[in-house]
Amino acid sequence: MREKLNIGTRGSALALTQTRQIAALLQRHYPAMRIEVVVIRTSGDIQKDVPLARIGGKGLFIKEIEEALLAGTVDLAVHSMKDLPAELPEGLRIAAVPLREDPRDVLISGTGLGIGELPAGARIGTGSLRRIVQLSSWRPDLEILPIRGNLDTRIRKVTSGDLDGIVVAAAGIRRMGWAGQVTQFIPAEKMLPAVGQGVLCLETRCGEEDLDAGLAFLEDERTRREVTAERAFLRRLGGGCSLPVAAFAEEREGSLTIRGLVGSLEKGKMIRHELQGKAADAADLGTELADALLDGGGRILLSALNSGQP
Ligand SMILES: NCc1[nH]cc(CCC(=O)O)c1CC(=O)O
Fold first, then answer.
1. ipTM of this predicted complex?
2. 19, 133, 208, 217: which has the highest count of C-beta atoms within 10 A?
3. Which burial class, exposed, middle or buried, applies to 199 when counting CB atoms under 10 A from its CB (0-12, 13-18, 19+)?
4. Are strands 105-109 and 184-186 parallel, antiparallel or unpaired?
5. Element housing 176 (H / E)
């Protein structure tokens, strides 16, 4: 392995925690290596107050980090897989996919009541179309309010009483060591996770085989196949993280089950589908699931979304 490694990351508390965890694993594996964490500001960090669904671009938390990779300023980038668009820029690759953290969403509520028990009109914060669609299908009587910002500022909206609850990813909460604040771990049946949720992505430049070989000890092959299926699904739908779509693959004993969902702007309306097949055919299963959803009404839902009609 190399003598020196520059790792690029966003500067949010969660991104830094994730990156430092990877850096610590690398340092333990390569005690003599000099590792530097380089913080890079991304467009997503700069445009802090604009709802993500409105900015709508793909890879807002990624772009500047990928530019630094391509320019050689950093040799490795650590991202949340969920923030990574389906298509990678020419010249970059996913070198390693570590073991998936908890893929579920969680509710943090001030009163300790779960989604099923919240009173009508309870004010719940989330900016993600995927969560809005599934929440309003489950509990059309809740008031859903857009929020953005880092995890700690979101949690403060609950402790201050501004909101009755927020829905965020379990993985971020667990990595920060805040699982004690969770009111409810929401089962995937009720809230299908985003493509890649709970997974980290180690991205490098193509053609640096020594580096990729040196990172291989961090790879979890099962997580890689699950993410391969989910990202093939996303690619077929043409998506980034701002579409109201969800997909969640789970591998057991060589068999892969992938569940997908496409939502609409019409309150609570969504379509779901599920496929099972050989784990070795992960990418094909994801693509097939996307086609089944597109043909089963998803194409109309997504085109209405692009034209701004409900
Ligand atoms: N930029 C949003 C984002 N990207 C990754 C995570 C959580 C960690 C993960 O899913 O791996 C979050 C925050 C959230 O959705 O609560």
1. 0.94
2. 133
3. buried
4. antiparallel
5. helix 170-176
The pLDDT of 67-84, averaged and rounded, is: 96
Tell me the pTM: 0.94
Angle between helices 151-159 and 13-29 in degrees, nearest 10? 130
Ligand 1 centroid – CA 80 distance (Å): 7
Q: Which CATH architecture has domain 105-186?
A: 3-Layer(aba) Sandwich (3.40)
Cα separation, 124 vs 126, whole angstroms = 7
| 227 pocket-lining for ligand 1 (C-beta < 6 Å) | no
Confidence category of residue 308, pLDDT binned at 50, 70, 90: low
pLDDT of residue 54: 54
Give the Cα separation of 170 and 198 in Å (integer).
8
Nearest residue to 193 (alpha-carbon basis) of 148, 225, 227, 146:
227
Q: Do domains 1-101+199-219 and 221-305 have the same CATH topology?
A: no
CATH of 221-305, one of 1.20.1260.10, 3.30.160.40, 3.10.180.10, 3.40.50.300: 3.30.160.40
Q: Is 172 in the pocket of ligand 1 (CB under 6 A)?
A: yes
* Nearest Cα to Cα of residue 78 among 169, 29, 130, 12: 12
Q: Is the CB of 12 under 6 A from ligand 1?
A: no
Those residues whose C-beta lies under 8 Å from the C-beta of residue 2, and which sit 6 or more positions away, are: 33, 75, 210, 211, 214
Residue 139, φ and ψ in degrees, nearest 5: -135, 80
Q: Identify the pLDDT of residue 48.
A: 65
Do 148 and 12 contact (CB within 8 A), yes or no? no
Model confidence band, residue 277 (pLDDT cutoffs 50, 70, 90): very high
